[in-house]
Automatic annotation (TrEMBL):
It comes from the Bacteria. The lineage of its organism: Bacteria, Pseudomonadati, Pseudomonadota, Gammaproteobacteria, Kangiellales. Belongs to the L/F-transferase family. HAMAP family: Leu_Phe_trans. It comes from Kangiella profundi. GO terms for biological process: protein catabolic process. This is Leucyl/phenylalanyl-tRNA--protein transferase. Functions in the N-end rule pathway of protein degradation where it conjugates Leu, Phe and, less efficiently, Met from aminoacyl-tRNAs to the N-termini of proteins containing an N-terminal arginine or lysine. Its EC number is 2.3.2.6. InterPro entries: Acyl_CoA_acyltransferase, Leu/Phe-tRNA_Trfase, Leu/Phe-tRNA_Trfase_C, Leu/Phe-tRNA_Trfase_N.
Amino acid sequence: MPNSIFLLDEAPLFPDARLAQDEPNGLLAVGGDLSATRLIEAYRHGIFPWFCEDEPILWWSPDPRCVFLLDEVHVSRSLRRELNKDKYIITINKAFPQVVRECAAPRTDQPDTWILPEMQQAYCKLHHLGLAHSIEIWESNDNEKLLVGGMYGVSIGRFFFGESMFSRRPNASKIALVYLANYLKNADFLLLDAQVGNPHLYRMGARDMPRTEFLQLLKQEINWQQPPNLWQSKILKEWKS
């Protein structure tokens, strides 16, 4: 017998993520709001929001969970050549709202977006609270910097929950992912959550983890104290002319 889809009320609480639907995979609950309190509670329990325009807020915890173990990110030879070039400036938390807007912009293969204005506002609120962060890829041109790639997500405990990425230049989002994974690894994080897998993520080394294992690790590591000033706005790599 399939599990029920739970209807959330005003209390920022969630049912056990293990009760999510098998089909559609991971659908757990509907309703509630996108307040910071509720979002934090969701991420702490392996749950995230995903919904489209004209839909209610839907909450998910898929099985399996697509994740990057930080020492398993695959860098192809062509991508390594790109990384070795001094063509981009890499920063953290220099342009969070702009990264979110770029991720929300329509794409050739995805004209509609799930990063609706209310989602953008909610994650910008988490950013102001020090829980949501971005990594940016900049191109320097005639003394002007142009944002050409990046990604953003939520960081709690030893987990970084990736939300979305974008590219305006070939491989820019891949470069963001590689730099973020290396940054997290050096800070002793455990993994980068990619939520739901796709061929692009698997080619870069992502793996599927059973939800029970993901939730167990999350329970063990969610209260880990991150290094101070870890997410202070900074430059990771300067452009060299």
